[in-house]
Write a structure and sequence with these properties.
three-stranded antiparallel β-sheet; 2 helices
Length: about 110
Amino acid sequence: YQRRVRTGYVAIVLPLACVDHSRNFNEKLLADLMARLEFVPREIHRSPKLFFGMYQLSDSPTPDAELDYESWRTQRIRRGSQYNNFSIELLNACLLYTSPSPRDMR
């Protein structure tokens, strides 16, 4: 018996204003998005101007979990002219998990 280990990392670096001063996005939405994509946070760091996040693909996938792409359309979470319009929209998460088949490599 061999246990297959899933490995993979994603590093996200954003201007801090995209996380802290956006009408449509915040750190909680980023955490929810990464969790739905089966990534767990390994390290989060904030500098005076940047947000750094290192995420690792979870060892325990949820194969039957379906992503609700409609829920990831731009949402207004803050109001006011002092906020920017940064957002992340989840359009096709399947692209993150596809690998070329031998037929496609020809």
